[in-house]
Amino acid sequence: MHMSGDTNVSDTAATADPHSVDAPPVVSARGLDKTYGSGDSAVRALDNVSVDFSRGAFTAIMGPSGSGKSTLMHCLAGLDTVTSGSVRLGRTDITTLKDKELTLLRRDRIGFIFQSFNLLPMLTAEQNILLPAQIAKRKVDREHFNHLVHVVGLGERLDHTPAKLSGGQQQRVAVARALLNAPEVVYADEPTGNLDSRSGSEVLGFLRDSARELNQTIVMVTHDPVAAAYADRVIFLRDGQLVDEVREPTSEIVLDRLVKLES
Ligand SMILES: Nc1ncnc2c1ncn2[C@@H]1O[C@H](COP(=O)(O)OP(=O)(O)OP(=O)(O)O)[C@@H](O)[C@H]1O
Where is this chain compositionally biased, Polar residues type (predicted)? Predict the structure, then answer.
């Protein structure tokens, strides 16, 4: 679902190599600055960050604690305002939007996955997955729904409430919910932070497959080099600046770069 005037971006991007991190950007940030507070207590959380995220690419954002990962994701997703600079989603400069427009943009064009799953306890897995579409009065493509729940392995458990699901299953519900609308970009904030390593690798494998097979653009903040190795590309922040990047990462290379950043 696109807002008027934005369909061209996806149309042209669809002809690009879906697996390339060099495909046309879906999200493009230029000269992002974010300062919290003022005077002596001011903290420059982002310092002139420019970065592109291509269609169908799975990107991990890493860096030491306090380096600005969450701030960058929140600014990219329109959850926080920037001090200066611009963020484009397709053709829309989201930094110029009013609150109401931002709310609609997040609802219609962005998917979110959080560490804490954020499922409603009184709803079944199926109801949780369908809820955003219902709120937005979007027609659900039943075939896509069936495909998603099959791929994430939830077929048998659609009528269970979250309390009757394991952590990994709950996160798979949250992933299916985020992907149902085929949003232009999915932001995942430590999506495996609450999962054991087996459930975590299932969720990460599914995120990687959805980037490769569904051409889904995914941006993930993580502290975990093993999680980052599922991405096509890892970008590194230090003191609010973008300082490094690795393509086709392995956990060893990511760990090595992190250690260097922290030294
Ligand atoms: N609301 C806020 N008010 C003031 N300072 C903030 C706020 N949010 C973040 N900061 C500061 O901005 C800097 C970047 O924080 P941010 O949470 O983006 O880092 P991070 O890399 O995500 O850290 P972590 O890995 O610990 O989650 C830090 O110095 C932090 O203290």
Answer: 1-13
Q: Give the Å distance between the CA of 7 and the centre of ligand 1.
A: 35
99-108: per-residue pLDDT in tens?
999 999 999 9
pLDDT in tens, 5-18: 443 444 444 444 54
* Domains of the chain, residue spans: 55-79+99-262
Listed residue (10, 18, 165, 149) closest to 90, CA to CA:
10
- ipTM, two decimals, is 0.97
Question: Which of 249, 241, 183 has the alpha carbon at shortest distance from 222?
Answer: 249
Q: Domain 55-79+99-262 is of which CATH architecture?
A: 3-Layer(aba) Sandwich (3.40)
Strands 58-62, 233-238: pairing kind: parallel
The pTM score is: 0.90
Q: Going by CA atoms, what residue is nearest to atom 1 of ligand 1?
A: 36
Ligand 1 cavity residues, CB under 6 Å = 36-37, 43, 45, 63, 65-71
